[in-house]
Specification:
The protein has helices at residues 22-55, 61-79, 81-90, 96-120, 138-152, 155-159, 182-218, 222-254, 262-286, 288-306, 324-335, 339-348, 361-368, and strands at 2-3, 9-12, 161-166, 170-177. It has 369 residues and is mainly α. A four-stranded antiparallel beta sheet has the order 1-2-4-3.
Length: 369
């Protein structure tokens, strides 16, 4: 971390804005945009699968929280990755003061929300009970509380961000921590990563490791329960490992130690978005419900696209509409009658049985009496 003459600690906010080499300036934005597009598409598909399960009454509390994690990843990729890509490409800040103040704050809010949502998922049930409406009670309150905490805790990232001139025509977005606040913020930057990253990740990984061991050894139906638990364990472990460079460099810089090399900072930045893009891949490959739901969505889309645009209309509702050729064919078939049946009913029409040939004359006598 650098210091200016006024005793203010300075570090870049909103991504690295001074990179050496044209190849890096082109490769890093291209990589970030690629992960943004693929990861956002994958998380959107996961959200569609979970929405389909809830409409079919197959939702669960764990699925609701996983849908919240997928939505958080989509927000992180769509709103944060393009900002970093543009800053790396332009080598300056061109998005204005408001974006500079909220760039790091919103990214940290998404990262904190992911770790806390996975920690909350340890209290969720994995099987649907009582339909989709039964899972919307405490889940909504938990998600709302998690996002409230996630937006409050990174507020210093918003307070200390500012624009700084760089050269004759360019400005950069930096995080300036005044020297008078250095002691308080030194304590805060030790508590903040511990409470929002280290403790939730360790708790989640330990809980699902214990749950997986218990499910494999003592559960009456260990196969399904162990699969869902294994998925959540892999998600939590992947999150912890891939976000470790970001949180490590963030804490190291904010505590006033020597600034890490630019390559380490770039690697940490890329791993943040790679984690969001990898989550739907893990869900599709390991979670049977997500994989089957995705196959069903693809089949429905294929069948809908395979319908011929000029297909004849069929009867709907009260049957008032029929295609032209189809209606004529139906009416022609309706007017046709079998000749043998027609002859039979014609021969039987207006026929009277004479008295001497009546096979049951006693019925007529009883009526006369």
């Amino acid at each position: 971390m650098d210091s200016d003459p006024n005793g203010t600690l300075v570090d870049f906010a909103g991504g690295l804005q001074l990179l050496d080499g044209e190849d890096i300036r082109t490769a890093v934005p291209a990589l970030l945009v690629g992960m943004c597009v693929s990861g956002a598409a994958g998380n959107l598909l996961v959200l569609l699968v979970f929405a389909r399960d809830f409409r079919a009454g197959q939702g669960s509390e764990a699925k609701a929280l996983l849908a919240s994690v997928a939505a958080t990843d989509a927000l992180l990729l769509v709103l944060c990755a393009p900002v970093r890509a543009l800053a790396a490409y332009k080598q300056a800040w061109v998005l204005g003061r408001f974006a500079c103040a909220t760039a790091d704050w919103f990214q940290h809010a998404c990262l904190v929300a992911k770790t806390l949502l996975l920690a909350v998922s340890t209290r969720a049930k994995h099987t649907p009970e009582g339909g989709a409406a039964a899972h919307c009670g405490w889940i909504l309150w938990a998600v709302a509380l998690v996002w409230l905490l996630s937006m409050i805790l990174p507020i210093p990232q918003m307070l200390f961000s500012a624009l700084q001139p760089r050269g004759a025509h360019n400005v950069v977005c930096v995080s300036q921590m005044p020297a008078c606040a250095s002691r308080f913020m030194a304590v805060f930057y030790k508590i903040y990563p511990t409470a929002t990253y280290v403790a939730p990740v360790l708790f989640t990984v330990a809980y699902y490791t214990k749950s997986l061991h218990r499910a494999l050894n003592y559960a009456p139906n260990p196969r399904r329960l162990s699969k869902v638990t294994l998925v959540l364990l892999c998600l939590s472990t992947t999150l912890g490992l891939m976000l470790l460079p970001e949180w490590g460099t963030f804490t190291w810089v904010r505590l006033g130690y020597h600034k890490p090399p630019a390559g380490v900072l770039l690697c940490a930045q890329v791993l943040v978005y790679a984690c969001g893009a990898l989550s739907p891949v893990l869900l599709v490959t390991m979670y049977d419900d997500v994989r089957c739901g995705l196959v069903a969505l693809c089949m429905a889309a294929a069948c809908r696209g395979a319908k011929a645009p000029g297909a004849p209309k069929t009867t709907e509702g009260n049957g008032a509409e029929l295609g032209g050729a189809g209606a004529n064919a139906v009416l022609t078939n309706a007017e046709k009658t079998f000749p043998d049946v027609e002859h039979f009913w014609t021969g039987r029409r207006n026929t009277q049985v004479e008295e001497e040939q009546d096979p049951i004359p006693w019925e007529k006598e009883e009526k006369m009496l």
